[in-house]
Amino acid sequence: MIARLFMLLLALTAATARAGGHFDVDDAGTLDPGQCQYEVWAGRTGTEPLSVFHLGPACRVGPVELGLNVDRYSGPDGRIATFGPQLKWTFLGAGADDRLSAAVSANMTWDLTRGGRAGGQFVVPVSWRALDSLWVHVNLGADWATGTGARTGRGGFAGEWAMNDRVSLIVERNRAFETWTTRAGLRFSLTPLISIDVSASRTGPQGVRGFVIGLNHEFKR
């Protein structure tokens, strides 16, 4: 059972487009011109537990956002390290006042520990500002598993509600590698450019529980 959970954790997170912090469903936004950011987060899943640590720097380069994902997974069955580049382009509604926006996001992931074929992901995120304080995000795409290259569909939806100027509630439902995950969490904005995310999740038919805390920091180049 532990081995299956370990591989599920790797499959669900190794190819995630993490522009929205550690949440599985991405938004359609990108960094403003001249801006960079880094995201760092850590989480645990299951009762053993299984853990993951992520570092994700990114910068706006011309019309696109370029990033790098570095991840380390550990559990009773060993440790796995992965890395890979990511590209994201908002092709519709890039303005701050636009109610509807859409983007394309793609990345590749190499397993540094076990070798084998690279994995990856292609996603089309769409964001709709339903109310001044409420965003709705929808994702549709596909994943390629590291090692085997097996392709599976990906999709999900999320609601992001700004409770006030500093706290937002995020609830999402996402399907990746034929497994559903439900996640709910809070984003605390310490400053306009620094935020902390915390969330809890349930994954798969057995409802495996997970918890994540992360830091997001945006800055000028």
Short key terms for the protein model shown above:
mainly beta; globular; 1 helix
Describe this structure in words.
It contains 1 helix and 12 strands. It has one helix at residues 2-13, and strands spanning 35-45, 50-61, 64-75, 78-92, 100-111, 119-131, 134-144, 151-162, 167-176, 179-191, 194-203, 208-220. It has a 12-stranded antiparallel beta barrel. It is globular. The N and C termini lie far apart (46 Å). 40% of the residues are buried.
Secondary structure elements and their pairing?
Blueprint: H1 2-13, E1 35-45, E2 50-61, E3 64-75, E4 78-92, E5 100-111, E6 119-131, E7 134-144, E8 151-162, E9 167-176, E10 179-191, E11 194-203, E12 208-220
Antiparallel strand pairs: 1-2, 1-12, 2-3, 3-4, 4-5, 5-6, 6-7, 7-8, 8-9, 9-10, 10-11, 11-12
